Amino acid sequence: MSLMQKFEHAAGAIDRLAERVGRLIAWFSLAMVSITFAVVVLRYGLGMGWIALQESVIYLHASLLMLGMAYTLKHDAHVRVDVFYARLDVCGQAWVNFLGAALLLVPVCGFVFWISLDYTRASWRVFEHSSQAGGLPGVFVLKTLIPITALALLAQGVALMVRAAANLRRNLD
């Protein structure tokens, strides 16, 4: 097995993990809608409300957004300023993907990971909880999603670079 094949195999493993996580967290959307419906019915129909229930929607939304980023990148569904990209041939698109990931995505993800570590550690140190009375106690878990998201995007960025390099190699041969 050549080195490029090993890289492609690793990129495939990263893709499969992003796919599984993405399909799992897609269910968070249904949970968010259901809980929001329950909050509205309880508040306006029964005159009752729970802060923890309302905060759970925020937690689900943050989890869906942050854990879904790698899945979105894998499916090339992220926001792209598509001025020239669509007009490029396969090699041109591969170069844009490779350089974009290498020069922008990977360094930014590394930076976000690095700067989020102290922030996350500080939250874990005190087991940070909601500032609202009756709120959810797991703010520290929610803040842990920041470095996890950075690592997931970093890994997906590397997989994107490997796929782009493989496309370049195939098209140059």
Distance between the termini: 18 Å
- DSSP E strands, number: 0
| Main β-sheet description | none
Poorly predicted regions are: none
Walk me through the structure:
The chain is mainly alpha-helical and 173 residues long. It has one domain (3-172). It is 79% helix and 0% strand. It contains six helices and no strands. It is elongated, with a radius of gyration of 20 Å. The mean pLDDT is 90.
Task: Note the main attributes of this structure.
single chain, elongated, 173 residues, 0% strand, 79% helix, mainly alpha
How would the blueprint of this fold be written?
Blueprint: H1 3-25, H2 27-46, H3 51-67, H4 69-74, H5 90-125, H6 139-172
Short description:
This protein has 173 residues and is mainly alpha-helical.
